[in-house]
Protein 1
Amino acid sequence: MGGLLALSKGIDRFNTFVGKNVSWLILVAVFVSAGNAIVRKVFNTSMNAWLELQWYLFGAAFMGAAAYTLLMNEHIRIDILYGRWSRRVQHWIDLIGTLLFLLPFAALMVFYLYPWALRSYRSGEMSPNAGGLIIWPAKFILLAGFTMLLAQGISELIKKIAVMRGVIADPNPYVTQHEAAEIEAADMLKTMQDGLAAGDAEPAAEVRK
């Protein structure tokens, strides 16, 4: 089990690094979008390449963060019965769901995306729009995103089995929506209090001078 947990930690570290850094692509996309809008309004012109670059950036951010979102247990769930069961039953639901749905779906996507992206690369596929970008990088972004999601699914499966066997503590203890709201409110209150305390400390330091 130790070797599998080491593999899981490696996957988690990689997807954390990627997930945190692709968030900057959203900022780049905002600048590209704003620049394209300014050029279109001021000079009454535009280029399809800039428009396509925007969805390249948004797509890369979305696919790059998908595995990290799974790691942080932040994917949207329709929680109707899940919260009513004991934590042990919830573990079994997560385990079966990962085995029967997440891993097969991600594996199928990787299986079909690989030859699709490779054909696009070998043919040098271009956008059908005039002045558009090459297409194959977008397809490889999809392939990379689902590959990372598949790897993260394996990592979550390893950790879930380890938790159920009592090898490690539960990294994502279940909290209800009400409890999550209370935790978020407490965090916001603490942040406000820390800000006020820092503001009060500055005048006191000036007085001492």
Protein 2
Amino acid sequence: MLPVEDTALAVTDTGDLGPDFRHITYDERARGKSRRSADYSFEAAVRDVDAVLDARGVERALVVSWSYGAVVAAHWAARNPERTIGAVLVDGAFPYDWLDDAMEQRIRKLFKRLNLIMPLLRPTGLTPRMTAAQQAESNIELGKLSREAELGPVLDGITVPTRYVLASGTSFGSKGDEQEQIRAGLDAVTARNPNIKVSVKVESNHGALLKKDFRAISDAVREVARLGG
């Protein structure tokens, strides 16, 4: 347990990817075994990457993250090129203007409906130990950060090898082909920045690919490791 600001993060440091890799993971605030916090902002999430790496004595890292975490990893890589070997962004960090007033209200209503069942899901690890309102605000903040005018320049500024592993179809709360439209926002980024490429697009949806397609993710990690030295 790593004390950070007003919370503590559960950190593991292993060699799960084999003898050539040191594999450090951590549970974000109020997730897994990590403790609650008064600050669930995006900037707090970025600071936590530094806190974990500093605590483990890591000078340079290859960052791998999924969904919301992919945006965190993209920002961290863009801000810290000297500390970043490369990045693998798993079905997240797509510059697309998906948040408008109607979507913001839809997010608030969705989490308000989930408020009754969230306490039942928390022991399974499927939901963080945050209130429904806190989760809604986190998703709304993500929508603002994901706008092309916000996230596009961040991705353009990445100077290290970066690979995306994309899912197919829907994600939690999405309808129809909404998620595929969001993923299409990546096309302009890969055209502008030669450091960023799509490693693979798998058939699994957003919620299933970590379990079903972990080999595709590990392949992307090894590719970035070779390129990043």
